[in-house]
Amino acid sequence: MRARQIKAFVKRDLRLVFRDKAAVFWLIAWPLIWVFMVAYVFVPPGSVTPVKLEIGVVNMDEGSGNFTGRDLIAVLENATYHGDRLFNIHVYNETGEMISDIRRGALDAGMVIPRNFSRNLTVGSARLRVYIGFTDIRSASITQGVLRGFLDEVSTRIGLVKANITIYYMQRYMEEGGVYNQSRGDLVGFLRRYMIGIAMPLNTSYEEVRPEAFETRETIIGWYTLGAIGMMFLYTGFSQGAAAVYREKEAGTLRRILASPTTPSTLVTAIVLSNLVIFLITAAIVLLAGVYGAGARIVFDPANPAHLLAPILLLDGALLSLGIGMLLSPLAKTSQGASSLGIALGLMLTFTAGIWFPRQMMPAWMSVLAEYFPPTWVFDTLRNIMVYGVGVGEVLGDVAKIAVATLIILIGDVAVYRLRLRRYLEEA
Amino acid sequence: MIVEARDVWKRYGGRVVLRGVSLRIEEPGIYGLLGPNGAGKTTFMNILVGVASPDSGEVLVNGRPPKDPSVRARIGFSPQDPGLIDQLTGFENALFYAELYGVDPGTARERLIGIGERLGLPRSVLARRVGGYSGGMKKKLGVIISLLHDPEILVLDEPTSGMDPGARRELWSLLEELRGRGKMIILATHYMDEAERLCDRVALINDGAIVAEGSPGELKRKHGPRAVVEVAIRGGVDEAVESILRGEAERIEVLGDKALLHVEDPDRAVPRIIDRLYGAGRSVTLLHVRYPSLDDVFLRLTGRRIEGP
Fold it and tell me: What is the 3-state secondary structure (H, E, C) of chain A?
């Protein structure tokens, strides 16, 4: 019976939503407008937004080989992408001082070039220690990706130079009768070290290197496609959650529904479920349009355990928005008032809590809101999984945090609705 | 089925809406709640169908409170506001509610078409969105919806208000038919003709309290005058006319150029009324003797009319 009653509400509400032009506009057209604005106006095809990283370097190398620590710093300083410098280099004397600047967010990453860097690079393999600033998964992923790509490329090129030199000298010595002033055993050991050095001189990269996690046009559109869904969830969820029962009351349907065998808890469950179905349908439409119409990079691989969390997170985002909306309902007296309050608050939080604008773009005081706003946790985690390819281990903490927040909000909703339903009927 | 209310009190804000209402309905038939607007009929019905709770006292249906969903499943309720959604068709509205009662959509559709045809809402109208319906059409659909799950008890709050006379008569005949099939119908109305034609028993409600209860005949015999003489006088009813008539009737009510006189013996009273009026130089343009209505009973018990002046 309960399932049948809930099904009746879902059918009714789907009909109502898709017959209401204004609802279709706000649920589907409005988020799509923003996705396509990002894809074709703000980040048109052929354009990218390069990232400039603040990199600290401690150079302890005192060698004078073919490629020294100073040469590496010069390469870093001159690295460009489409004419834009990739790195701002800050040279430090002490590692501790540099790490402290990374901790307080002044640097994206730091690099320590060790004492025998140039010597080891010439005769074997040189170590390079890189510290990544982990302010959040997204920034860390970008920084690490850019640096790794850059240093890998540097390594490859050094290896190539060393291989050419080796071939040159081997050829020369062979031609001159194998003149070499070391014993045969030393020669084998030297060649072994040298060859390993050719294969892995350094873990580095160079020039036009853009790893997967770099901000490509596709990942930017992917980020904003999920942002558009978040925006829609927020203003619609807040508005629907706050106004749903008022609408039933004002339409005169509430009295009739509660005179039927429908219990108040079934009514609230039905309202939530019918909205969740509507949200998931519209989210799927926006996702498909974002991927196939705007070229967003949003990956869903059912074989990846992290990706299996994505639908659950999407559902959670919808539930959180509706739940917060329901908590708002006592603040209004009519469905119009509740709906306006929900839309206004939803849009305000969309733009200030990291749903639409990346929190990295916001001033520090404003980004605090994003830190404590559960729907932002949902969409940040979704982006990390579906856009940046973060593994399940890195998001489990966030998922647990989101689950706890959802539970707390739903308990609050039950308490509010128990009181409100009685009051709605007394007023009806 | 037994519906019982025991000393039901209800307040909204500081206003007392029900004052110790008690009643017991045991037999199938049509039970009327008759009273003017604001008397407390709708509040009592809301409590009866489990939508509202009494502040004190209790309402029981077969010994169980109507808050129990299994009790509500046996009641069909048609509120004053039919509770229809304008963006949905008549079919969609009705089938939505039928599903809340667990009625199979095919059965509900069949019943809807059958009763709809009878009350003047044919299939073609039911297929249209309710936003285009008149008030009367909405009211009819509201009543039909309350019948779709074939309830044992039917609670109807002002079911015919806004309906055209033809549809009213058709609904009355439908309710009489349902009574014949053993249903219990509780009907709130402020229409005298409706209550007198349909109701087997009537409770007169005034200001939140039941002032009298019984069959319409009993109530009229017990509380009403023997006859009502309606007199229209050229020039209207002024103080002089009132003082002439006061001695001939136990109660006088003035309605425009007419006076209604409650009399015990019309055969003796009528000639004297005419003599005295003509003797005072006032001419009578209409004189009509009728048996008392429930409205007259209500007037006698409460000093006010049900349908307003």
Answer: CHHHHHHHHHHHHHHHHHHCHHHHHHHHHHHHHHHHHHHHHHCCCCCCCCCCEEEEEEECCCCCCCCCHHHHHHHHHHCEECCEECEEEEEECCHHHHHHHHHCCCCCEEEEECCCHHHHHHHCCCCCEEEECCCCHHHHHHHHHHHHHHHHHHHHHHHHHHHHHHHHHHHHHHHCCCCCCCCHHHHHHHHHHHHHHHHCCCCEECCCCCCCCCCCHHHHHHHHHHHHHHHHHHHHHHHHHHHHHHHHHHHCHHHHHHHCCCCHHHHHHHHHHHHHHHHHHHHHHHHHHHHHHCCCCCCCCCCCHHHHHHHHHHHHHHHHHHHHHHHHHHHCCCHHHHHHHHHHHHHHHHHHCCCCCCHHHCCHHHHHHHHCCHHHHHHHHHHHHHCCCCCHHHHHHHHHHHHHHHHHHHHHHHHHHHHHHHHHHHHC
Strand partners, B204: B34, B212
Residue B151 contacts A where some CB pair is shorter than 8 Å: no
* Contacts with B17 (C-beta within 8 Å, 6 or more apart), sequence order: B10, B11, B40, B43, B208
Inter-residue contact B100 to A28 (CB < 8 Å): no
Nearest-angstrom CA–CA distance, A15 and A169: 80
Above 70 in pLDDT, residue A60? yes
Which of A7-16, A45-54, B161-170 ranks highest by mean pLDDT?
Answer: A7-16
Q: Does A7 touch chain B (CB under 8 A)?
A: yes
Would you say B19 and B9 are in contact if contact means Cβ atoms under 8 Å apart?
A: yes
Report the alpha-carbon distance of residue B50 to residue B76 in Å, rounded. Answer: 12
pLDDT tens-digit readout, A131-182: 888 776 667 777 888 888 888 888 887 887 777 777 777 767 665 555 455 5
Name which of B45, B47, B74, B96 to mutate to probe chain A: the one with the most chain A Cβ atoms within 10 A of its Cβ: B96
Q: Are A323 and A413 contacting, i.e. CB atoms less than 8 angstroms apart? A: yes
Taking the CA of residue B58 and the nearest CA in chain A, the distance in Å comes to: 17
- The pTM of this model reads 0.72
- Identity of the residue in A19, A255, A260 whose CB atom sits nearest the CB atom of B100: A260
Burial of A23 (0-12, 13-18, 19+ CB in 10 A): middle
- ipTM of the shown complex: 0.84
- For tokens 């290896």, what's the residue? A159
Enter the tokens of residue B87. Answer: 């963006």
* Residues of A with Cβ-Cβ distance to B79 under 8 angstroms: 252, 255-256, 259
Query: Roughly what angle, to the nearest 10 degrees, separates helices A305-328 and A392-427?
Result: 30
Average pLDDT, stretch A1-6? Answer: 88
Which candidate from B52, B75, B83 shows the least CB-CB separation from A251?
A: B83
Give B31's pLDDT tier (boundaries 50, 70, 90): very high
Q: Cβ neighbours of residue B210 under 8 Å, at least 6 residues apart? A: B21, B22, B23, B203, B204
